[in-house]
């Protein structure tokens, strides 16, 4: 039986107590831009333990450590702390993100920002919500849209082409923002706060829960070419508050990025983990 979203929200809320402690160690994962804290590990271990008890026989696809079993009928996709760099510096834009996939389709997503007291969730066909209020994307046109984006922090060699996309979009929309946590920015789109979203290279745990939130709120989110986002490795993410704005943003992206300039994981394999170095 599929667990209730309330039971998942409860587990995520309890996990956030481990996140709110400010006594943590920091390690690098392949460079100073990509870090992990002891809080990330503690939150992930708690979530895996509690969600496995909630749904026996499930699989996991998680950011930290080698917790990858993506071939089960039901798979939890977990980012224990999205926006770890923000979290490590005391910036509020960070969140726990949990999604449930059934036979490859996202059917539930929960994103909780404890420092902001914002609990976002969505269920397939039942809408997107924040703290009990149903969410809807805005009706703003492209010209009045706010773009959330980044410069491929973990692959700075891709920053130039990211900049090309951002600058062309900037001249056509209202303005650009960067909050440093993909899950938070995706929630902002579902809530009607921002209208456009582009990231060159995100991992599945960054966007899994957000896929359902945006779709249930009336927006559109895809990879390059309008294809469904991959769960085999990193992917480019294009999202907008409606199909028209999505098509316009995607055309700008594809003008500068006709094909993905990276391929980190062979098809069907879990995303590669980074070696960690204690700081």
Entry keywords:
279 residues; alpha+beta; 7-stranded mixed beta sheet; 5-stranded mixed beta sheet; 15 strands; disordered C terminus
> Compute the gyration radius: what is it?
17 Å
Straight-line distance between termini: 43 Å
Characterize the main sheet. 7 strands, mixed
The secondary structure category is alpha+beta
Helicity level, as a percent range? Answer: 25-40%
* Inertia-based shape: globular
**Strand segment tally:** 15
Mean pLDDT comes to 91
List SSEs in N-to-C order. HEEHEEHEEEEEEHEHEHEEHE
Helix count equals 7
Give the strand content: 25-35%
Residue stretches low in confidence (pLDDT < 50, at least 5 long) are: 265-270, 272-279
Query: In which order are the strands of the major sheet placed?
Result: 3-4-5-6-7-8-9
What does this structure look like?
The chain is of the alpha+beta class. It is built from seven helices and 15 strands. Mean pLDDT is 91; it is low at 265-270 and 272-279. The strands form three sheets. The protein has a seven-stranded mixed β-sheet, with helices on both faces. It has a five-stranded mixed β-sheet with strand order 11-10-12-14-13, sandwiched between helices. Helix 1 (5-20) runs antiparallel to helix 2 (38-54), helix 4 packs across helix 7 and helix 5 runs parallel beside helix 6 (204-217).
């Amino acid at each position: 039986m599929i667990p209730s979203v309330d039971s998942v929200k409860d587990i995520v809320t309890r996990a956030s107590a481990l996140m709110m402690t400010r006594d943590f160690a920091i390690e690098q994962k392949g460079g100073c831009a990509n870090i992990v804290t002891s809080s990330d590990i503690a939150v992930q271990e708690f979530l895996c333990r509690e969600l496995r008890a909630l749904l026996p026989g499930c699989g996991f696809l998680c950011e930290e450590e080698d917790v990858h079993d993506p071939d089960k009928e039901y798979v939890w996709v977990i980012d224990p702390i999205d926006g770890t760099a923000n979290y490590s510096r005391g910036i509020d834009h960070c969140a726990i993100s949990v999604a449930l996939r059934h036979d490859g389709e996202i059917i539930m997503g929960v994103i909780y920002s404890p420092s902001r007291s914002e609990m976002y969730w969505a269920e397939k066909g039942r809408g997107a919500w924040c703290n009990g209020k149903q969410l809807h994307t805005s009706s703003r046109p492209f010209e009045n849209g706010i773009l959330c984006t980044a410069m491929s922090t973990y692959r700075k060699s891709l920053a130039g082409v990211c900049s090309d996309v951002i600058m062309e979009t900037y001249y056509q929309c209202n303005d650009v923002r960067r909050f440093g946590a993909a899950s938070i920015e995706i929630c902002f789109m579902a809530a009607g706060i921002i209208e456009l979203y582009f990231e060159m290279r995100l991992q599945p745990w960054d966007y899994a829960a957000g896929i359902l939130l945006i779709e249930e709120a009336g927006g559109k989110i895809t990879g390059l070419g309008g294809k469904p986002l991959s769960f085999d490795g990193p992917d480019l993410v294009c999202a907008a508050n409606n199909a028209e704005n999505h098509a316009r943003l995607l055309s700008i992206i594809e003008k500068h990025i006709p094909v993905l300039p990276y391929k980190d994981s062979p098809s069907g394999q879990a995303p590669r983990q980074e070696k960690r170095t204690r700081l």
